[in-house]
Amino acid sequence: MTKHDSLINGKWQKLGDYKPNINPSDTEDVIGEYSYGDASSVEAAVAAAKSAQEAWRNSTPQQRFDLLDAVGNKLAERSKEIGAFLSREEGKTLAEGVGETMRASQVFKFHAGECLRQVGDLQASTRPDIDVETTREPVGVVGLITPWNFPIAIPAWKIAPALAHGNCVILKPADLTPGCAHIIAELLVECGCPNGVFNLVMGRGSTVGEALISHPDVDAISFTGSVATGRHIAEVCGKQLKKVQLEMGGKNPMVVMNDADLSIAVPACINGTFFSTGQRCTASSRLIVEAGVHDEFVDAMTKAMSNLKIGDALDPSSHIGPVVDEKQLLSNLKYVDLARSEAAEVIGGQRLELGKNGFFQAPALFLGTDNAMRINQEEIFGPCGSVIKAAGFEEAMAIANDTPFGLTAGICTSSLKTAREFKRQADVGMVMVNLPTAGVDYHVAFGGRKGSSFGAREQGRYAAEFYTTVKTAYCFAG
């Protein structure tokens, strides 16, 4: 069995006990064993990052470009191999695994370009003979805590801008998917990342994550995960006046109007609700359908669901892979039972036995629901979607916004006026028109409102807001 160590100060180190990494499509397949660290491991990683920080912040834009561009190229060259590994580790389909790997490549290459696009402002002072410059500088040592559902893309879109803007990094990946993070670490070492600039510490959130967020020499924390954990991190970091960025949950609405083209709307809802096994914070978990098209939409959705193949993530014919682990599957099934107890009609949703000991679940559609039900207020994070009937646009809009979350919202309509009004009124960070709520570009801002996000936006040029601090300099030239 291959054993994998953490990376501290450029050296691979066994930090603690090795834990098995299990394939959710086949639990008899152990991918490898990964060394889990503890608070002392974080101490060593932070010391290494702090020691390397001054040299890295003073490195040239070309040095940083070369590193990030090389990693991006390696990811693209090995996308099929790495994508298959991702699918084996996390459970999303092979096509999704390869696609996510290519997205990570694009993220690294975009932020390689950002190394050469870092600019400031020269402004005229209100006083004579004084020049004013505004520049951006790195925050310092940054702790990154990433989730299991996008195990290579989300680490990439945190690591790449952090390094591009001259910060040193400690990455704590999700303990369910350490392998993809380990691959990024291997590529950074292979491409010449200086010792201490990037450090990988695998382990539990309760130990490694807690030590990272509370360490006084960590200047900023970027986290993607649950709302409960995000609130805790905000509290800990707030007491230290530490910069924090949080991406958390979603209960995203997809509104289908009477004038929608169902040949567009139904595939968009199938994609947004069920692909990636519904394990996306941007998933369409609430399908709000105008009354005039409700029955036709439900019939079309049910037919489309029956054509989905659930199977091994590495089977190219699978549309949907397994749930990530037993705990998540059992949570999903409890919500299916809850839907029934709340008087919803349930189509699908059962556990599937497919000849392998995996965590497979049929997609679930909940009919006859209202927005006050728990299934429509709580994030399930599985292949489950609710249909809510609305009398018209105003009611659909009110339902869409009636949630503690505000990440993304979608609408399917042929009316430009309706689409424009929806974009204006949706209380979210991202809006989709005639597109799935899940699926975003790597070069534009990502983030939401309310319980979905806190702090500066991620991705694209907006990433600079979190990974840099602004300095204003005055100079008397008289």
Description:
The structure is a single chain. The chain is of the alpha/beta class and 478 residues long. The protein folds into two domains: 3-248 and 452-476, Aldehyde Dehydrogenase, Chain A, domain 1 (3-Layer(aba) Sandwich), CATH 3.40.605; 252-433, Aldehyde Dehydrogenase, Chain A, domain 2. Helix content is 39%, strand content 24%. Strands 15-18-19-14-13-21-22 form a seven-stranded mixed beta sheet, with helices on both faces. Strands 10-9-8-11-12-24 form a six-stranded mixed beta sheet, sandwiched between helices. Helix 1 packs across helix 7 (205-214), helix 2 (61-77) runs antiparallel to helix 4 (94-115) and helix 4 (94-115) runs parallel beside helix 5. The model has no long low-confidence stretch (mean pLDDT 97).
Short descriptors:
478 residues; Aldehyde Dehydrogenase, Chain A, domain 2; seven-stranded mixed beta sheet; Aldehyde Dehydrogenase, Chain A, domain 1; 2 domains; alpha/beta
* SSE class: alpha/beta
Mind telling me which CATH architecture of the largest domain this is? 3-Layer(aba) Sandwich
Q: Fraction of residues in helices?
A: 25-40%
- DSSP summary, beta strand count: 25
Proportion of residues in extended strands: 15-25%
| Global mean pLDDT | 97
- CATH homologous superfamily placement of the largest domain: Aldehyde Dehydrogenase, Chain A, domain 1
Rg over CA atoms: 23 Å
Number of structural units classed as domains:
2
